[in-house]
Amino acid sequence: MSRVPHSKAPPALPDRPVSFDTLYEEHSEAVFFWARRYAAGRSGWAEDVTHDVFLKAWEHRAWLREEDVRGWLFRVTQNVALSALRRENTFRRRIAALLFPPQHTETELTPEAALERREAVRSATAALDRLPGQERVVMALKMLDDLSQREIAQLLSLSEGYVSKLISRAQGRLSAWGWKVDDGAP
């Protein structure tokens, strides 16, 4: 039995972490590009993912190093994008349940009925996505999470009157776009 010579130790990581400004300047375009791959061309969605990735980078800035930052950013972008897609799918399932309540004797859908259902869900999701930010959040909490105005106000640190105003505006917009809004369903 012979002894294998010990290989050279890997170089030590630099003492200085990456500057956050430099990190953002050098990698924001790549992160946005990676996020767009998951976004199906939706720039706003990719911008949201990019924002979330750099929030995580800010939280971990003390230990990020030049040598490994690109791979780390790629993995974080992938994780954030996949989480966002899972939330989006949950959102769509909740809208589908509102539009098409489960029936105890539901028969198998015909291809035409399945297509019609999928199109209705897509259309309802698109209508909710068109709402301004606070209105969209308030309506999602009301319709999809079945929260009361008081619960929404407490959750978002808003007055109940303002929540009522946001719901009223959102319902007005949805009605103008052809959606009947009653009992929390579009």
Describe the structure.
- The structure is a single chain.
- The protein has 186 residues and is mainly alpha-helical.
- The model has no long low-confidence stretch (mean pLDDT 78).
- The radius of gyration is 23 Å and the shape is globular.
- The protein contains seven helices and no strands.
**Count of helical segments?**
7
Give the CA-CA distance, first to last residue.
Answer: 77 Å
Helix content: 55-70%
Low-confidence stretches: none
Secondary-structure element order, N to C = HHHHHHH
Query: Using only CA atoms, what is the Rg?
Result: 23 Å
**Averaged pLDDT, please?**
78
What structural category characterises the helix and strand content? mainly alpha
Largest sheet: none
- Principal-axes geometry comes out as globular
- Beta-strand portion reads under 5%
Q: Kindly state the number of beta strands.
A: 0
Quick take:
The protein contains seven helices and no strands.
Summary keywords:
globular; 186 residues; single chain; 67% helix
Task: Give the topology, please.
Elements: H1 20-39, H2 43-59, H3 69-99, H4 111-130, H5 133-143, H6 149-156, H7 160-176
